[in-house]
Every structure is written in C-alpha cells, then in structure tokens.
Amino acid sequence: MRLTRIYTKTGDKGETGLAGGGRVPKDSDRIEAYGTVDELDSIIGIVRSFFKEISDRDLFNQIDPKLYKIQNILFVVGADLATAPGKTYPNRVVVQDKQVTELENWIDEWQTDLKPLPEFILPGGGKVASFLHLARTVCRRAERMTLRLSRKEEVRPEVIRYLNRLSDALFVLARWLAQKLGEEETLWDRSIE
Predict the structure, then answer these.
(1) Taking the chain, what is the end-to-end CA distance rounded to the nearest angstrom?
(2) Rounded to whole angstroms, how far apart are CA atoms 158 and 161?
(3) CATH architecture of 25-184
C-alpha cells in the first residue's frame, strides 16, 4: 500500500471504505473495533518512547523488540478488522495462532520473576508501567468491541484470541518492568471508605 494523498474527501459524509471493497458508517462496530486497536498501537508507541529513556540498555534491548513486534501485529489485527467479511486482497497478512502462543511464552517467562499478587493492584508505577496499564485497558476495550462485532459479522477467531492474550501480556509486562525498574506496585486497599 502506498499513500499518495492523506485526504480524499470520500469520508466527508460519515462513511469509510473497507479493505476488499464496500463502505460503512464511520461509527459502525467494525470501525470502532479497528479504531480502538489503532489507539492501542499508539499507546504502545508512547510506552516505547518513554522506555527509551531508561538507563538499563540490556533491559531495553530485551523488551523494546517485543513491543515493536506487538505494534506491527496490531497493524495486522487492524487490517484484518478493516477487511470486509468474505473479502480478500493480494498480499493480505493475518494474525495466526503462533503469535498468540508467542505472547503466552512471554507471559510465562516474565511471570517466573513475579510473586503472586495478594490483592488487586492499582494501575500506576513509573511512566512505562502506567502506560502499559493504560494499554491493557484499551486492549480490553478493543477485545470487547471486536466480540460485539463478531456477534453480527464474521471475525477471525485468532484476532479475538490475540487481543485477549495481549491484554494479559501487557498486565504482566507492566508488573515485571515495574519490578525490574525498582518501581513500587500499590495494592488496592479494601479498607478505604
């Protein structure tokens, strides 16, 4: 795909085109789903920007390529959701179960260093952990919107599985990085009224 013009004026009446053909309202469930995936991808870009500032280059070199890969796969997820049901086009790339398995492997790896939580934690910590928690919540919203869409139109199940596993990975990574960076996790205090 090559972008030669940013504005086309074709969406001025509240509709947009889908990959593979067809037009839908810009507030349709399909557009809401892939728009939220785009929002998630942008937040991970913010995480990577803040993460560049850490002094532990080994930690950066271990995690940044994973975040970069997630961003690229989120483009694939978005493209999958932006494709009209039953349509295809040349060079189409789709999310596969191997990417879900890769997230599971990362979760298992990070979790070996973490103590079990005695209570829910409040989202926070340093900049990187805080934005990972934000990414996790946006990922859950993208998953909910994709599930809503799947009740009306065809959605590849790998897309739903990837979003589900990614939100878990972002949670565990936020905790793991907070620990590695010496940032405190704040437990939910049930006694506060």
Answers:
(1) 55
(2) 5
(3) Up-down Bundle (1.20)
